[in-house]
Amino acid sequence: MAEEIRAEMVANVMSVVVAEGGRVADGDTLVILESMKMEIPVLTEVEGTVTKMAVSEGDVVQSGDLIAVVG
């Protein structure tokens, strides 16, 4: 079953750490967001393959926006 990872706040995407097709484990960083001059890592809570990366570096995400899908 795929898990959708969504933004929890308004932020800028500083860095995309894992590309589509990459394998991740529980606790791995997918992207790093920047909000109010703080770096916030977005972690996965499941093991699997990133089937969709919905953001790119420089994007602005709103609360609830899709960041990635891990299946």
Automatic annotation (TrEMBL):
InterPro entries: Biotin_Carboxyl_Carrier/Decarb (IPR050709), Biotin_lipoyl (IPR000089), Single_hybrid_motif (IPR011053). Keywords: Biotin. It comes from the Bacteria. SUPFAM superfamilies: Single hybrid motif. Transmembrane segments: none annotated. It holds the Pfam family Biotin_lipoyl. The keyword Kinase does not apply. Gene3D superfamilies: 2.40.50.100. Residues 1-71 form the Lipoyl-binding domain. This is Biotin/lipoyl-binding carrier protein. It comes from Pseudonocardia acidicola. The lineage of its organism: Bacteria, Bacillati, Actinomycetota, Actinomycetes, Pseudonocardiales.
